Amino acid sequence: MLLYHSRLIVLSIICQVITVYSADHLLEGIYCGKNNCYEVLGVSREATKNEIGRSYRQLAKKFHPDMHRLPEAKKEAEEKFKEIATAYEILRDDEERSDYDYMLDNPQEYYAHYYRYYRRRMAPKVDVRIVIAVTISVISVIQYYSAWSKYDTAIKYFMTVPKYRNRALEIAKAESKEAQLKGKANRKSKAEQKMEQDRVIRRVIEENLDIRGAYAKPQVVDILWIQLILLPYTITYYAYWYLRWFWKFTIMKQPYGEEEKLYLIRKYMKLGQHQFNALEDEERQQFLDEELWIKDNFLVWKELKDEEAKKALAENNKYKQYRRYIKQHGVGRMTFDDS
């Protein structure tokens, strides 16, 4: 019997020590400070969300500052109300409650608790997926309008080139005469006639001129959002294309078609798709006629082009002056008596 009572006394002392130890290890400045959030709300650690919410409403009503008139009582109620609100904010959120429970169970991890607390406090509340979607949308809009700006610049440039402007003027005059014959023409000032003429010239150039490369007319499929949506198809297409190439031309040794020949020529020239598409049809046909898809033919052609470029550069007056200067003064030398 004496042994039984001794055990009860020991267990009681252990419980008191644990309670004091836990209270001493509640950290100031985070969560509920030196107070236990569960005890502030008067609930156990096993309490459900509904029980926590019900206890919070009862305590909030009881300690609401407006329920007290005396200054001292009002001040005490305000402090108690803040404690209750803080405890509720922590325990109603599943992730924050989990962090708090971890702190109660592992009080020795002092710095880790501060890190978890402030990481959650400082983390952005906006969903990362929304941020990514908005970013892609902004990039897509900028990309699309930038492409339209480049296209508009190209059209304005071609409107000033005599070759294209004169041809467009002929078409514009023909349309004007046709409108006059049909009686659709009305009296316009010279400024209005000039604006109408420029509109017609622009329309004619847009309809008849095939602008390629980086200044080509933008298409919706070129923007980033559409490219990302089409990415699985693009990957599948390129995988099929390379497997087909390996099978047809590496294993079966079949002759190249025109598309494959142009691809090899573009690859040897180290040009992008837009750059190669910007070349004139006659120039690409010349590449095919010279059989530049054959590596040896391309190397000979490139050597000839390099020689022609060197000869043209040597005959250039500015280049001659530069060579003469380098010969007299050396590279990177600067003097004040140069004529």
TrEMBL record:
The organism of origin for this protein: Papilio xuthus
SMART domains, per database record: DnaJ (SM00271)
UniProt KW Chaperone keyword: yes
Protein name in the entry: DnaJ homolog subfamily C member 25 homolog
Residue ranges of the TM segments: 126-145, 223-243
A Pfam family reported for this protein in Swiss-Prot or TrEMBL: DnaJ
GO CC aspect terms: endoplasmic reticulum membrane
Domain of life: Eukaryota
PANTHER family the record matches: DNAJ HOMOLOG SUBFAMILY C MEMBER 25
